[in-house]
Amino acid sequence: MAHVVAFANQKGGVGKTTTAINLASSLAAAEVNTLLIDCDPQSNASSGMGFVKDPERLSTYHLLTGLATIEQALQVTELEQLWLVPSHKNLIGANVELVEADRREFRLRDALESMRERFHFIVLDCPPALDFLTLNALVAADSVLIPMQAEYFALEGISELLDTIERIRVALNPHL
User: Fold this and answer.
1) CA 131 to chain centre
2) CB within 8 A of 16, min separation 6: which ones?
C-alpha cells in the first residue's frame, strides 16, 4: 500500500519541487517503486524529470477533470522504478472547472486508488497556492511535507497552511 506524501506551501521558491524530485528519485534509486505526480501548472517537476511541455500529452489536468485514468497518464522516466504523471499549464483551468464538479475535493484521491498497490510511495508536488489543486493533493495524501525558508514572511504563511491542513483533517481526510 503506497504512502502518499504531498509537498505543500503556498509560498513559492521554498524548494517544494526540488525536494519532491529528489525524494522520488532517491526512492527509485533505492529500488522502491515510486510515482511522482506534478500537481502544479508551472510543471517544473515534469521538466525537472526531462519532459518537455506538451499540451497533447495526458496530464494531471486530465485526471482531475475525468478525461483520462491515471494508468493512461503514467509516463516512464529514465529511472527504472520511477514513473511520472506530468503537468501542463492548462492545469490552471481545473481550478475553475472543479468549482461545480461532483466530489471536487476527492478527484485526485479517487484517481490514485488503483495505484496504491502498485507503488510504495506516491509523491505529490503542489503549486504555491491554497487552491483546488493543493486541496486535492492534501485530501489524497497520508502526510504532508512543508518545505520553508527560515524567514519571517515564510512563518506567516505556515500558520495559514496549518489551519487549512487541520480543516482538511476534520472535514475531508482524518488520516492526514
Assistant:
1) 12
2) 7, 8, 9, 125, 126, 128, 147
